[in-house]
Every structure is written in C-alpha cells, then in structure tokens.
Amino acid sequence: MVTKQSAGIVLFRRSSARTEVLIGHMGGPFWARRDAGGWSIPKGECEPGEDAIAAARREFQEELGLPVPDGELIELGDVRQSSAKIVTAWALEGDLDPASIVPGTFTMEWPRGSGRLREFPEIDRANWFDLPTAAGKLVVGQRPLLDRLVEHLDSLS
C-alpha cells in the first residue's frame, strides 16, 4: 500500500489574551452534520515530485482561494491521520478574514451509486478558534500539530 502524502499550513494569530488558529470545516456530504472532528487545517495531497512546502502553499491557496500570507514558515513535522495519510505541516503567523475565503471545489458521485456527479466546496466554512476549541474540532490526527505550535511559541518566551 502506498502511503499518501499531504502538506498544509496552520495559520495562527496571537493577541495578549490568546493564540488562535484558522481551520476549515470539510465540505461535502460526509462531513455536513459533523462538527467535532470535522475540521482540518488547509492541506492537500502532494503532486508526484512536488516539494512539500510548495504543496502546502498551493493547497492553502486552492482550499481558501487566497494567497498564503507573508511570513516565516515554522516546521511542525509530520502527523499520521486515521486514513494512514501522512500530513507534513508548517505554522505561519498571519491574519485573514474568513469572510473573504472563496473555497475550491471537488467533484464526486453523490449519492453513491447514482451515477450523478456533484460539485462540493473543499471547505464549507472557515473560522478562527482558540487552541482548546480548535483541538476539539480538528480531525484527531491533526491535533498534535497544535501541541507542537504551543511548544514552539513557549520556546520563544
């Protein structure tokens, strides 16, 4: 079995009160009624031969319809999701307005076996959440990325 490789960016912003991350609720019928565990960082599969950082930047723009904010990427390493997919992620301090997001779309047969193709947004909404709230919303396999972000930020103080 070939392990799929994805890459993504954890966009975060800090205030004197807290740190928040921007995450997106996964679009499509499988996730429509799921909140806890139905959110993800902007990420996607690496193309054959594509550098993971380039894939993370491309997927951020494809999923959110916005360019990656300027700034230094902070390596967060790899996590393995329940699907066995490996996600390589970086954190980036920046800000953007979730109302300005224009999500990319994907096409799938729905309902299954119907022969009808339908288009769905890759994410159906995005929002800023404090770290404890984001941890409860993210798919389980991505939650360690938040711990690594906290470790990085703590090492700066």
Keywords:
single chain; 36% strand; globular; Nucleoside Triphosphate Pyrophosphohydrolase; 157 residues; 3 helices; alpha+beta
Summarize the structure in words:
By secondary structure, the protein is α+β, with helices and mostly antiparallel strands. It contains three helices and nine strands. The protein has one domain: Nucleoside Triphosphate Pyrophosphohydrolase. It is globular and about 55 Å long. It starts with a strand and ends with a helix. The mean pLDDT is 94.
Compile the SSE list and pairings.
Elements: E1 5-14, E2 19-26, E3 39-40, E4 43-45, H1 52-64, E5 74-80, E6 86-93, E7 105-109, E8 117-121, E9 123-130, H2 131-137, H3 143-156
Parallel strand pairs: 1-6
Antiparallel strand pairs: 1-2, 1-4, 2-3, 2-9, 5-6, 7-8
Kindly summarize this structure in a few lines.
This protein is an alpha+beta fold.
**Spans of at least 5 consecutive residues with low confidence:** none
By DSSP, the count of extended strands is: 9
Q: Report the CATH topology name.
A: Nucleoside Triphosphate Pyrophosphohydrolase
Percent helix range: 10-25%
Count, helices: 3
